[in-house]
Amino acid sequence: MANINKKMIIGDVVRKHPELIDTFMANGMGCIGCPSAQMETIDDACMVHGLDVDALITALNKVN
User: Fold this and answer.
1) What are the b/e assignments for 19-52, b being 16+ CB within 10 Å?
2) CA-only gyration radius of the chain, Å
3) Does 5 reside within a domain?
4) For every one of its 64 residues, what pLDDT tens digit does the chain have, with 9 covering 90 and above?
5) In total, how many domains does the chain have?
6) Which ranges constitute the DSSP H helices of the chain?
7) For the whole prediction, is pTM greater than 0.85?
8) Which pLDDT score is estimated for 49?
9) Residue 51 is part of which domain span?
10) What is the distance between the alpha carbons of residues 26 and 55, in angstroms, rounded to a whole number?
11) Going by C-beta distance under 8 Å and a sequence separation of 6 or more, which residues neighbour residue 57?
12) Is 50 within a domain?
C-alpha cells in the first residue's frame, strides 16, 4: 500500500483502502461516510475534529 499522508482526501483513501475504515473510526474519525469526507483532506478533518493528525497518519500507515 502507498503511504497515506495528511494531504490525501479521506474519500479517496477509503475507496482505495476500505480496510482502513476501522482505523479511522478507532482514532476518532467517525465521519468517513459524510459528504465532507469526499472533498476534505485528512489534515482538514483532524483540525475540525480536534484530532492529532500525526497520530492518525501513523496508525493508518501501520495497517497492511
Assistant:
1) ebeebbeebebebbeeeebeebbbbbbbeeeeee
2) 10
3) no
4) 669 999 999 999 999 999 999 999 999 998 788 888 899 999 999 999 999 999 999 999 999 6
5) 1
6) 10-16, 21-26, 42-49, 53-62
7) yes
8) 92
9) 10-62
10) 12
11) 4, 5, 6, 42
12) yes
